Amino acid sequence: MPETLGHIQQSCPVTHGWRVQRHDKIVTAICKHLWDRGWEVLREPNIPTPNGLRKPDLVFWNSVQSFVVDVQVCADMGVATPNDAHERKRDYYNTPIIRQWVNGRSGKPPVFSSIVMNWRGAWAQASYNTFKALGGTDELGKLITVRMLEDSVRMYRMFCGAGALRNVH
Questions:
Q1: Domains of the chain with CATH codes
Q2: What is the pLDDT of residues 20-40, one digit of tens each?
Q3: From 22, 33, 113, 142, which residue has the greatest number of CB atoms within 10 Å?
């Protein structure tokens, strides 16, 4: 496998743990935003289904509505657009059993969405629309994006350090 920037950022086994950390920091920022606005938030709940456990990043609700949202930093190749990744993520969780599970806890039928951006920082438009509908500001969106990009740069630097014995540049 060629050690391209895309490979390093999205699929290399050496960077797996750093990719998880990059993802989790986005989830944490969104959780904090929701908690600060009074939402009830479940982070990575285990939802039993006939196909095994499903574990969306966030299930949250307030007195008006509920949501199921999963976060993804996607590639910029192999996926037509971040919007395609958004739709796949949304559709993966939008099942009758998950709908029933969330409704049973929140008392409201859930909206299914995702927060998807590619590793270069481009958000899926539908994801950004969801983020804004949840009270996300442009400033917070930019901060999340910049932090994701900083983590990507850090990941690359750490990869190069880990690969020094393999002559990776």
A1: 5-162 (3.40.91)
A2: 999 999 999 999 999 999 999
A3: 113
